[in-house]
Design brief:
DNA-binding, 7 helices, mainly alpha, Arc Repressor Mutant, subunit A, 234 residues, 3 domains, 2% strand
Length: 234
DNA sequence: TGGACTCGCCCGCTTACATCA
DNA sequence: GTTGATGTAAGCGGGCGAGTC
C-alpha cells in the first residue's frame, strides 16, 4: 500500500464533507468531525436496510426538485448518497458499534457472496430492477450490490488480463525458439552451400535453377506457377 | 436542430480494513 | 503478539450515452 497519498485522503472522503457542507449544511468544524466519524463508524454492511433507505438509495437521489440538481449530476448523486449514509449511520449507531472503531463488519457473508456470484454468472451487469431485487433479497443496500458487481467485473478483467499475458508470453517463447531454429537452419544451409558437394547433390537444372548473382533459386521460366524463391540473406 | 445540462452507469485507481501465513 | 501479503468493500474522479429543455 502506498502511503504517499495519505495527505490527500484521510479516513473519510473530504469532498463529501466540503461539498455537502457548502450546499446543504453549513457545519462548524466540530460538526464536520462528528459527521466524518459517524459517517464511517455507523456503516454496517450486514445491517438490513430500512425500507426508506432502500427507496432513497436509488430513487430518491435524483429527485428533480432537489436543490442538488443545481450541482453536477454525478456529484449530487454521491453527495446525496453520502448524506444518506451519514443520516442513516447516526441512526444506526448501535451498542456494538459505539466505539472509536469505524468501517467494521466490512465483509459480506458467505451466503451473500454466493448469491451474488450466482447472479454474476447469469449476467455480469445489473439493471436497476435486478439490483433492487438482489439488494432486497440479500438485505443489502442497492449501492452495495452495485459496488460488488463493479468490483467483481474488475476482478474478472484482471484475471483475464493475467491469462492473456501468460498466453502471449508463451507465444513469445515459442517464436523465439522458432527463430533460433531457423537461424540454425540458415547457418547449416550456408555451410552446405560452401561445401564442394553442394552442387553435386542438387537436383537437375531442369527443375531448379539458381541465379549466381542474386542467389535466388527458381523454377524454369516456362512454369506457370509463381516462382518460389529461397533467399539466403545475410 | 444543435447545444447545454442533468442523470445514471461504468471503469480505473485508490484507500481502509479483514484475514491469513 | 507482530508483521507483511493478499483479498475485498467502498470512495472518488472522469467518461459516456440518454433524456430534457
Amino acid at each position: 500500500m502506498g502511503d504517499t497519498d495519505l495527505g490527500l485522503s484521510l479516513s473519510f472522503p473530504h469532498h463529501h464533507l466540503r461539498t455537502t457542507s457548502q450546499h446543504h449544511h453549513p457545519l462548524t468544524s466540530s460538526d464536520r468531525n462528528y459527521e466524518a466519524r459517524s459517517f464511517l463508524r455507523g456503516i454496517d454492511v450486514n445491517r438490513p436496510p430500512s425500507a426508506s433507505e432502500e427507496c432513497e438509495d436509488d430513487a430518491g437521489v435524483s429527485s428533480p426538485n432537489s436543490t442538488l440538481s443545481t450541482i453536477s449530476g454525478k456529484r449530487s448523486e454521491r453527495e446525496a448518497n453520502a448524506e444518506d449514509e451519514r443520516t442513516s449511520s447516526r441512526g444506526a449507531m448501535s451498542d456494538e458499534d459505539d466505539g472509536e472503531n469505524c468501517r467494521k463488519k466490512l465483509r459480506l457473508s458467505k451466503d451473500q457472496s454466493a448469491v451474488l456470484e450466482e447472479s454474476f454468472r447469469e449476467h455480469n451487469t445489473l439493471n436497476p430492477k435486478q439490483k433492487l431485487a438482489l439488494a432486497k433479497q440479500l438485505g443489502l443496500r442497492p449501492r452495495q450490490v452495485e459496488v460488488w458487481f463493479q468490483n467483481r467485473r474488475a476482478r474478472t478483467k484482471l484475471k483475464q488480463t493475467e491469462v492473456d499475458c501468460e498466453f502471449l508470453k508463451r507465444c513469445c517463447e515459442n517464436l523465439t525458439e522458432e527463430n533460433r531454429r531457423l537461424h540454425k537452419e540458415v547457418q547449416q544451409l550456408r555451410a552446405l552451400k560452401l561445401s564442394p558437394h553442394f552442387f553435386m547433390h542438387m537436383s537437375p537444372p531442369t527443375t531448379l535453377t539458381m541465379c549466381p548473382s542474386c542467389e535466388h533459386v527458381s523454377v524454369p521460366s516456362t512454369a506457370a506457377a509463381p516462382t518460389p524463391r529461397i533467399v539466403l540473406g545475410p
